[in-house]
From TrEMBL, chain A:
SUPFAM superfamilies noted in UniProt: ISP domain (SSF50022)
Keyword line: 2Fe-2S, Heme, Iron, Iron-sulfur, Metal-binding, Nitrate assimilation, Oxidoreductase
N-terminal signal peptide: none
Organism: Flammeovirga kamogawensis
PANTHER family for this protein: NITRITE REDUCTASE (NADH) LARGE SUBUNIT
Name this polypeptide is given: Nitrite reductase small subunit NirD
Residue span, Rieske domain: 15-116
PROSITE patterns recorded: RIESKE (PS51296)
Database matches in Pfam families: Rieske_2
UniProtKB/TrEMBL annotation, chain B:
Origin superkingdom: Bacteria
Name recorded for this polypeptide: Nitrite reductase large subunit NirB
The Nitrite/sulphite reductase 4Fe-4S domain, residue ranges: 626-764
Keywords per UniProt: 2Fe-2S, 4Fe-4S, FAD, Flavoprotein, Heme, Iron, Iron-sulfur, Metal-binding, Nitrate assimilation, Oxidoreductase
Listed Gene3D superfamilies: 3.30.390.30, BFD-like [2Fe-2S]-binding domain, FAD/NAD(P)-binding domain, Sulfite Reductase Hemoprotein, domain 1
A Pfam family hit: Fer2_BFD
Protein's organism: Flammeovirga kamogawensis
Cofactor(s) the protein needs: FAD; [4Fe-4S] cluster; siroheme; [2Fe-2S] cluster
Domain FAD/NAD(P)-binding: 3-281
UniProt xrefs under NCBIfam families: nitri_red_nirB, PRK14989.1
Sequence ranges assigned to domain Nitrite/Sulfite reductase ferredoxin-like in this UniProt record: 554-614
Family: Belongs to the nitrite and sulfite reductase 4Fe-4S domain family.
Length: 122, 828
């Protein structure tokens, strides 16, 4: 499985995802960019933002942004709404240890605008 | 000092070293392995594709060997055994003498003699080096074929897919995994493979690998062909017994050193273990039997314990292919054995289960699980231990929904049951570590017994044994909610109520820690709603997706819409509206068991539009998405039915409207029948009311579902007002005291004193809380409002239903097909 935790150095474009108020607090929503769906999470409790692929690797459902977010120990995570498989929002690792990992993307806020860092696919 | 030489440094060789160290032998140990690195976990070889991290697969470091005084020599191949002088010679001409020689040379991939196997682009799947070569080549390739549709072949195919190659599996037999699963299972597995993008070619004999220097495709004996850039051969294994010939060590016809039950070859100074050993003409291509063999040899050498022998091993397996559950155990076919198969073949959900029951119905002979292998551990145990079957063996494979207990628990396992086969840990070992050594958690068990440290497949069962044993010891297991709240549900209920807490964030800040999770968030959401009956929309992101979007999520990511149709009574005008809306938004419609009409296949962004129409027509939310009152089913009753005693429809509507929107630990259903003939099936509900000559009988604690349960009589021949009063008290008492996601039937079962106690509380008001319960219910009733009414008129809330936050477009991945004149989701 390709497991990519994309780092800042790899970013080739910062995509404007919208105003911070477009994103629910302590939850996720989806953005659409050139055919790709990216889940964006506004983790208010931790004062952090995260972005991951929207596709749940378990049954290949475009759904992760609608999952409940939380923490496991120190690790922020999202639980897929279908079968509650959980993934680290930081590294994308599947925390139940039985699914593939998900892709994660850097995210930054500038002047109340949310930017997701994408990279050129080969 | 005894000199032990071990040839080969694979998993089994490592295990032997570990066991010898454990047993404190004073022997000098030399291990000679041909591979460049110390033993690694071949079972999880495919993980190497993910991170190319060989370190993670390592069984032990070179330092470990050194620290334990073992002389480890890698990249060196043993080429000769001299039995007379008791020495071995390596390919670099070094010679070592031994008192005991252990052959742990494993297997190599079997490469069938097909024309062209030596071309570039042909690979086997056995070592880290194989994978490295494959990955390098795969970068330039577009497509790959896997020769062999067995356990390993499918794993290789998954690896190829992950390398982003167009992948096909070529199998000679007419189905996949022909040795483990039957035809029906094979068909389903094929469609699952195709579902993750793997082409499956069955009944194909490969006659040639074509291409010049570099392969370009395969041709088959039926004159068909496949163009493909690379081939991974996974056609079985060949024991590495080549050292046997010159030294005159007996080998079996199908390969492998012939061993007895003490793992001795025909030379009693020479043992063979693992995949290179042939015991009773059988090669075990699995790691667990190899570990067992290592134990036998360690006992021989360290204690000369002749009693501990190898007795064969069963070949049950579970595929660890990501995303596809496949397992088989015992005799999956029972071809020539009289037996009764029990099967579930659920095509829609892609689940096939088969268990074979002995002719006398006393025990399990084997089985197959596809699509859902969760029960594998338990079934496997029942098989190995020849445990007695429950009265209805079908319960073993029918999913219990948590509404009642599983068909059989770990309690029934004998102490000798081998729970962890990698490390050979029995249930007794685990229980001992808990009872005698005071272990109380999973990590402690892992440390004390090693259970679960191998493949990890036994962890769920280890966990159950832990809980079961602690419970029996009288250790109270507080059902704390999760790592964020160290309280039980009941304690949380009181905290919220007494401290007047209104939001999740407030509760987390005051009484919790960390960032919350998918367990505590919806639970608190439900408690807040049960206590204050505030709109659940307020803190939408703590709700499960159903509550968050006020609709039930269905396969493929669409939602269903369920308007309330109280008592199942609906006017023609409203029926027309339902039809019109369904047509306009292209929704699948179905009449449900709860006497209402569900509309499926709605896009998230259409939900507010659909509901706007329904609200205008006077409908309200049916709360099908929440853990709350669903429906109160009714028969036509005295209005139309010639047997009817009272107006069951009218009463059902009254009750449904009274409790609509009520949030509870689990969903609630009710029913009202007009006479004892019970056409509304009221006794299959959480509360059921049945008309009598003198009034109504009230029954409680019933449900349908996987473990049907008839509701029991709470009070008889009472009038309508009393029925309502008692239901108020009963429901409120349940809401306050039940566990999360516990329906009324199991709640009543666990309630100390059972129905007699409930009668005292509700009917006789023995706790003196009757009035309180009633007024709590009044408060909730007063706070009811339809969530959808609120949602459609509030633009802020409507915004949440946008599919994407940066564009208005629909989700292009939503896919439907048409069947029977309606729309259907495509299967996953
Ligand atoms: C991809 C894959 C997935 C698998 N999945 C599972 C699974 O899910 N469950 C399961 O139970 N099993 C699984 N197996 C099988 C399991 O890995 C083997 O049963 C196990 O590794 C056998 O251990 P062994 O020590 O007998 O042999 P090996 O691990 O093959 O070790 C033998 C070693 O000896 C070396 N050797 C051979 N001849 C010589 C010589 N003359 N001189 C020096 N060294 C020599 C070899 O190079 C090799 O390193 C899988 C195997 C593979 C390849
Ligand atoms: S339960 Fe009695 S009243 Fe109701 S429909 Fe059946 S027979 Fe008629
Ligand atoms: S019985 Fe219920 S849960 Fe099962 S498929 Fe039917 S609707 Fe779904
Ligand atoms: S689809 Fe995500 S957990 Fe099953």
């Amino acid at each position: 499985m390709t497991f990519e935790h994309n780092t800042l150095e790899q970013v080739t474009t910062w995509v404007n995802a919208g105003h911070v108020s477009d994103f629910p607090e302590n939850g996720g929503s989806t953005i659409f960019h050139e055919g790709d769906q990216i889940a964006v999470f506004n983790f208010k409790v931790l004062n952090k933002w995260f972005a991951t692929q929207n596709l749940c690797p378990h049954k290949k459902q475009m759904i992760l942004s609608r999952g409940i977010i939380g923490t496991e120990g120190e690790t922020p995570k999202v639980a897929c709404p279908y079968h509650k498989k959980t993934f680290s929002l930081e590294t994308g690792e599947n925390l139940n240890g039985c699914e593939d990992s998900i892709e994660t993307f850097p995210i930054k806020i500038e002047d109340d605008t949310v930017f997701v860092g994408l990279y050129e696919k080969k | 000092m005894t000199k032990i030489v071990i040839v080969g440094n694979g998993m089994v060789s490592y295990k032997l070293c570990e066991k010898l160290i454990e047993k404190n032998t004073s022997a000098s140990i030399t291990v000679i392995g041909e591979e460049p690195r110390p033993a690694y976990d071949r079972v999880h070889l495919s993980a190497y594709f993910e991170d190319e991290n060989a370190e993670k697969l390592s069984m032990a470091s070179r330092d470990w060997y050194k620290g334990n005084g073992i002389n480890l020599i890698t990249s060196e191949k043993v080429s000769l055994i001299n039995r007379e002088q008791q020495t071995i010679t390596t390919h670099t001409n070094s010679t070592y003498s031994y008192d005991y020689l252990v052959l742990a040379t494993g297997s190599s991939a079997f490469v069938p003699p097909i024309k062209g196997v030596d071309k570039k682009g042909v690979f086997v799947y056995r070592t880290i080096e194989d994978l490295e070569l494959m990955m390098a080549y795969g970068k330039k390739a577009k497509s790959a074929a896997v020769l062999g549709g067995g356990l390993l072949g499918l794993e290789a195919a998954k690896a190829a897919i992950d390398m982003k190659l167009k992948t096909s599996v070529v199998e000679f037999a007419p189905r996949l995994m022909p040795r483990q699963i039957d035809e029906v299972g094979g068909d389903l597995l094929k469609s699952k493979m195709e579902g993750i993008g793997i082409d499956v070619l069955l009944g194909k004999a490969t006659s040639e690998i074509v291409g010049d220097d570099v392969m370009t495709g395969l041709s088959f004996s039926d004159d068909t062909a496949l163009n493909v850039d690379m081939l991974i051969i996974s056609a079985g294994i060949r024991p590495r017994d080549e050292l046997g010939k010159a030294a005159d060590i007996k080998t079996a016809e199908r390969g492998g050193f012939v061993v007895n039950s003490l793992m001795q070859t025909n030379d009693e100074k020479i043992f063979a273990i693992g995949e290179c050993a042939s015991y009773e003409n059988m090669i075990y291509g699995l790691v667990a039997p190899g570990y067992d063999m290592a134990e036998v040899v360690a006992e021989q050498i360290a204690n000369e314990n002749k009693e501990y022998t190898f007795e064969g091993c069963d070949m049950s397996t579970k595929l660890k292919l990501i995303g596809v559950d496949v397992a088989s155990f015992g005799d999956p076919f029972c071809e020539n054995i009289p037996h009764f198969p029990i099967t579930i073949n659920d095509q829609q959900n892609g689940i096939y289960k088969r268990i074979n029951i002995s002719e006398d119905g006393s025990k399990l002979l084997g089985g197959i699980l596809i699509g859902d292998a969760e029960d594998y551990n338990m079934l496997h145990q029942m098989f190995i231990n020849e445990m007695a079957l429950p009265p209805h063996p079908q319960d073993l494979i029918i999913k219990s929904t948590g509404d009642g207990g599983a068909a059989i628990g770990v309690d029934a396992l004998p102490d000798t049951a081998q729970v962890c086969s990698c490390e050979n840990v029995t249930k007794g070992d685990i229980c001992c570590s808990i009872k005698d050594d005071g272990v109380t958690d999973i990590n402690g068990i892992k440390k004390a017994t090693k259970a679960g440290t191998g493949c990890g497949g036994c962890m769920p069962m280890v966990n159950n044994i832990l809980e079961d044993t602690l419970q029996k010891m009288g250790t109270v297991i507080r059902k704390e909610i999760c790592e964020h709240f160290t309280y039980t549900r009941q304690e949380m209920f009181d905290l919220i109520k007494v401290n007047e807490i209104k939001t999740y964030d407030e509760l987390l800040a005051k009484y919790g820690q960390g960032g919350g999770c998918e367990t505590c968030k919806p639970l608190v959401g439900s408690l807040l709603a049960s206590i204050w009956n505030d709109l659940i929309l307020k803190e939408a992101t703590i709700q499960d997706t159903n509550d968050r979007f006020l609709a039930n999520i269905q396969k493929g990511g669409s939602y269903s819409v369920v308007p309330r149709i109280a008592g199942g009574e609906i006017t023609p005008d409203k029926l027309i509206v339902i039809g019109e809306v369904a047509k306009e938004f292209d929704l699948y419609t179905k009449i449900t068991g709860g006497q209402r009409i569900d509309l499926f296949g709605a896009k998230l962004n259409d939900l507010p539009l659909i509901w706007e129409r329904f609200i205008d027509a006077g409908f309200e939310s049916g709360h099908a998405y929440g853990k709350s009152l669903r429906t109160v089913k009714s028969c036509v009753g005295s209005t139309w039915c010639r047997f009817g005693l009272h107006d069951s429809v009218g009463f059902a509507i009254e009750i449904e409207n009274r409790y609509k929107g009520l949030r509870s630990p689990h969903k609630l259903k009710g029913g009202v029948s007009g006479c004892i003939r019970e056409c509304a099936e009221a006794r299959g509900k959480d509360f059921g009311v049945i008309a009598t000559e003198k009034g109504w009988n009230l029954y409680v604690g019933g449900n349908g579902g996987a473990n049907p349960k008839h509701a029991v009589l709470l009070a008889g021949d009472i009038d309508k007002e009393t029925v309502i009063k008692y239901i108020d008290r009963y429901l409120m008492f349940y809401i306050k005291t039940a566990e999360p996601l516990q329906r009324t039937a199991p709640w009543l079962e666990k309630l100390e004193g059972g129905i007699e106690y409930l009668k005292q509380v509700v009917v006789e008001d023995s706790l003196g809380i009757g009035e309180q319960l009633e007024s709590d219910m009044e408060v909730l009733k007063a706070h009811y409002s339809c969530e959808w009414k609120e949602a459609v008129k509030n633009p802020e809330i409507r915004k949440r239903f946008a599919h994407f936050s940066n564009t208005d477009q629909d989700d292009p991945t939503l896919k439907f097909k048409r069947e029977r004149d309606q729309k259907f989701p495509v299967a996953w």
